[in-house]
């Protein structure tokens, strides 16, 4: 029942792919400046040592690790959402699935970089390959993340393939410059849409979709186990694997909604990304948010009620020194988005997007509250150390690199949206396949 | 004071872990028999040793490998193996500690550590509001089930056959996972360049871990360089109160330099325990409870630099005292 044609869509999206306008350049310069600021921070850290960060002997992991978990979470959520939407052939996925796939790869390229900032001697990172110890959860993470990166790039590329071919075939009509034609020709690797090619492509995309769902769950659990395997109060929890996965999907769904909101306005995609899409993804946000709230409550309730000495110290700290952050991330961050989506009257595009923004911020704070207060509550009371070393506060160096990370995230999206239509043309023109038996068979192959 | 104490201590030490050292030296250098021809090994030096049937006899130092040993260079590879037939153990007598901090100073000096970098720390502990406060020296516990070594992704930190857990600064990538893994906060990080240069000609060994390296993790090493020479770790040697006993579990003997005792008897008679036993890390450091103390606990604050005194501002005992005033 698809009413779209390839040519029609390409003509409509052509201005998006045309030479960037002044606004684009203005934003690009802004983000580049942020990036340069971050690089200056990095330079400071490299020349003066990690002493310029807020990290000290007790709180050895800070904002860098929080950003790492955060970007990885957004990425896995993108993988989960696009994988699930693809496999279940959800008909409303079409205009937003590319955003979701891009989200996966872009954030996955940024997340692990924060680890490098946190590592004391990053010129020794190759030791992870030269002297690997498979017993270490960090090694599990290295293996999992690299697998994930490869898998997600393949999945993204497969979803690009048809569009690349369309762009190549319509290059003349779209008046594209020569380098673009060459690029698309190269990337389309001779795909012409013969029945055999189509079948192969469909099959590989289904395989990759199911694989990245599994990989995403495994990778994020492994990340959670880095914390879970230690004995630290607040980390040593069996619930951490699924908790992290759910929290990741929550933040990722929020990020997807924000991206939908931005691109809808920027490229005037009101006819494609409709209110219904916001509501549908919003409902997903609601369900995942409910799970996230449940896991959070369950985790802290058992710690608080049993009141083992260290757990009590941690809960006391959270409810005293971190009171507002805790309330924001674990109450407001759950309840507010849920209320917005629960009441039909509140479900406007802007409201849902606002809820999503709260979600993202809440989840960043949630990771902060997982990492920092626990490290401030070690088994040995913090004594015989300089008073300035007791509590953690991020320094400008850490914040500058955080901003740089966000800037690169935006820049990569700006570049990607200039290279491929932000709405997958091949998806849009594809007929709805619910009744098509052949596809079910391919899926089951 | 340190000077004349040192010589008497060395003598006792020879008595203490001398017997075992003979076999160590034999195994290590293999020159027990050939040593007569070596002019550098202090031929003719006599030492008193305790025989297995309890007699005190005087014999050639050479014969039992107790002649003054030179520093041997232990390579990074060799430092992974451990001293054969040894299982080192430390016992800390909390009844004697008065926060003199000589252990901290000796450790920092011996390992060329910057001032803000301690491998042994002193805590003012109070287990609950009404229980008695006490001073608590805390080196690395050299656990038999060391989480720090388990989680290290590159094998920079490792457990040796003699029970010692070391860090190889040349291998460490500085990920700090070991620091979050250790429940005893035994590990410290070089946040800035320690600005200590290696002495010309000296080679790096994880056993001494000098020079310290920026961006890597450091911690107490139990001074294997001293142990190889049959001497006590620097902290035990420096303690004016004889708080720290050190020895070998295989020989079942520990000494603080002035007193040599059977480890098992000491632990049995004085109800020795290990800190946070329930975590299952199996520490190699035992504590004797702070009973019949030599000093009132307040003495620990005497003569401290203001900066160091400030470090105990959050200790519960101090808070309680201040409230009373």
Strand segment count of chain A? 0
Biggest sheet descriptor of chain A: none
Shape of chain B: globular
Helix content of chain A: over 70%
Oligomer: heterodimer
Biggest sheet of chain B, open or closed, and with what strands and sense? 5 strands, mixed
Order of helices and strands of chain A: HHHHHHHHHHHHHHHH
User: Strand-and-helix sequence of chain B, N→C?
Assistant: HEEEHEEHEEHEEHHEEEHEHH
Helical/strand content category of chain A: mainly alpha
Provide the helix percentage of chain B: 10-25%
Query: How far apart lie the N and C ends of chain B?
Result: 38 Å
Straight-line distance between termini of chain A: 26 Å
Put the structure in a nutshell.
The complex is a heterodimer of chains A (445) and B (325). Chain A has 445 residues and is mainly α. Chain A is built from 16 helices and no strands.
Characterization of the model:
The complex is a heterodimer of chains A (445) and B (325). With 445 residues, chain A is an all-alpha fold. Chain A is built from 16 helices and no strands. The longest helix of chain A is centred in the middle third of the chain and has 34 residues, at 195-228. The radius of gyration of chain A is 23 Å and the shape is globular. Mean pLDDT of chain A is 89; it is low at 435-445. Chain B is 24% helix and 16% strand. Chain B is built from nine helices and 13 strands. In chain B, the strands form five sheets. A five-stranded mixed β-sheet of chain B has the order 12-11-10-3-13. In chain B, strand 10 and strand 11 (253-255) form a beta hairpin. At the A-B interface, helix 6 of A face strand 4, helix 3, helix 4, strand 8 and helix 8 of B.
């Amino acid at each position: 029942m698809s009413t779209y044609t390839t040519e029609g869509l390409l003509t409509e999206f052509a201005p998006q792919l045309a030479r960037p306008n002044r606004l684009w350049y203005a934003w690009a310069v802004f983000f580049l400046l942020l990036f340069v600021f971050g690089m200056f921070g990095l330079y400071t850290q490299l020349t003066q040592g990690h002493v310029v960060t807020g990290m000290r002997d007790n709180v050895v992991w800070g904002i860098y690790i929080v950003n790492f978990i955060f970007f990885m979470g957004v990425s896995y959520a993108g993988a989960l959402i696009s994988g699930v939407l693809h496999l279940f052939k959800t008909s409303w996925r079409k205009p937003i699935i590319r955003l979701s796939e891009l989200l996966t790869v872009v954030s996955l390229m940024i997340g692990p970089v924060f680890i490098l900032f946190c590592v004391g001697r990053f010129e020794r990172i190759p030791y992870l390959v030269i002297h690997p110890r498979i017993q270490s959860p960090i090694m599990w993470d290295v293996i999992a993340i690299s697998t994930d990166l490869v898998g997600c790039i393949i999945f993204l590329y497969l979803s690009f393939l048809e569009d690349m071919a369309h762009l190549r075939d319509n290059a003349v009509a779209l008046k594209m410059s020569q380098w673009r034609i060459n690029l698309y020709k190269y990337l389309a690797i001779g795909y012409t849409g013969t029945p055999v090619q189509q079948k192969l492509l469909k099959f590989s995309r289904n395989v990759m979709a199911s694989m990245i769902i599994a990989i995403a769950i495994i990778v994020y659990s492994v990340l959670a186990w880095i914390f879970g395997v230690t004995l630290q109060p607040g980390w040593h929890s069996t619930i951490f694997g699924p908790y992290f996965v759910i929290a990741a999907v929550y933040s990722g769904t929020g990020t997807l909604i924000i991206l939908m909101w931005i691109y809808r306005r920027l490229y005037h995609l009101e006819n494609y990304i409709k209110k219904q899409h916001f509501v549908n993804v919003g409902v997903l946000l609601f369900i995942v948010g409910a799970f996230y709230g449940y896991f959070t409550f369950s985790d802290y309730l058992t710690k608080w009620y049993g009141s083992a000495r260290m757990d009590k110290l941690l809960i006391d700290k959270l409810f005293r020194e971190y009171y507002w952050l805790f309330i924001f991330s674990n109450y407001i961050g759950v309840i507010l988005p849920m209320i917005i989506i629960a009441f039909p009257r509140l479900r406007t595009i802007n409201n849902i997007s606002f809820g999503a923004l709260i979600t993202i911020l809440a989840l960043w704070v949630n990771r902060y509250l997982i990492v920092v207060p626990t490290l401030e509550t070690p088994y040995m009371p913090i004594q015989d150390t300089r008073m300035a070393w007791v509590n953690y506060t991020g320094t400008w160096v850490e914040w500058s690199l955080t901003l740089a990370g966000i800037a690169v995230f935006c820049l990569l999206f700006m570049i990607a949206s200039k290279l491929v239509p932000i709405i997958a043309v091949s998806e849009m023109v594809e007929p709805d396949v619910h009744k098509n038996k052949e596809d079910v068979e391919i899926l089951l192959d | 004071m340190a000077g004349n104490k040192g010589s008497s201590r060395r003598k006792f030490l020879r008595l203490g872990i001398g017997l075992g050292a003979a076999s160590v030296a034999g195994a290590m250098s293999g020159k027990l028999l050939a040593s007569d021809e070596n002019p550098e090994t202090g031929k003719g030096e006599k030492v008193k040793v305790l025989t297995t049937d309890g007699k005190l006899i005087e014999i050639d130092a050479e014969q039992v490998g107790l002649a003054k040993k030179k520093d041997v260079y232990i390579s990074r590879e060799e430092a992974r193996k451990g001293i054969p037939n040894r299982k080192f153990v430390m016992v800390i007598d909390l009844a004697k500690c008065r926060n003199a901090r000589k252990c901290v100073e000796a450790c920092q000096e011996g390992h060329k550590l910057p001032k803000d970098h301690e491998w042994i720390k002193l805590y003012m502990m109070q287990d609950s509001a009404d229980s008695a406060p006490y001073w608590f020296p805390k080196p690395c516990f050299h656990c038999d089930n060391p989480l720090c070594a388990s989680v290290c992704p590159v094998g920079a930190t490792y457990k040796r056959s003699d029970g010692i857990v070391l860090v190889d600064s040349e291998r460490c990538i500085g990920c700090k996972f070991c620091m979050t893994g250790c429940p005893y906060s035994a590990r410290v990080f070089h946040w800035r360049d320690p600005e200590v240069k290696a002495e010309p000609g000296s080679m790096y060994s994880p056993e001494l871990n000098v020079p310290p390296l920026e961006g890597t993790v450091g911690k107490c090493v139990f001074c294997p360089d001293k142990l190889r020479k049959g001497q006590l770790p620097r902290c035990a040697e420096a303690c004016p109160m004889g708080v720290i006993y050190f020895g070998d579990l295989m020989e079942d003997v520990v000494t603080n330099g002035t007193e040599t005792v059977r480890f098992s008897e000491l632990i049995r008679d004085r109800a020795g325990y290990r800190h946070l036993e329930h975590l299952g890390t199996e520490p190699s450091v035992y504590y004797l409870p702070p009973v019949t103390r030599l000093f009132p606990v307040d003495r620990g604050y005497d003569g401290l630099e203001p900066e160091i005194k400030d470090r105990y501002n959050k200790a519960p005992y101090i808070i309680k005292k201040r409230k009373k005033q």
